[in-house]
Task: structure prediction
Amino acid sequence: MTFAQFIYGIVGVINTVVIPIIFALTFLVFVWGIFRYYFLKSADEKERTNARAFVLWGLVGMILILSIWGLVNVALSTLGIG
Result:
């Protein structure tokens, strides 16, 4: 097994298992924030502020995950590994 094959195997596991799970969790945080903002205790301003934070951090998480995932794939294809 060469080093490139080893890295390709690790990247394959990350791409097929880890990234989708983390992305699903950030999406659930985003949806939970929207649900809390519009449906649960929407009259309470403190709860709405907390719900906005969930929405914001869910979006930030999704953007970061997609950005890092894209940069890693660009680096791998540039190096001829992926």
In short: The chain has a mean pLDDT of 87. The first helix runs from residue 3 to 38. The CA atoms of residues 21 and 52 lie 23 Å apart.
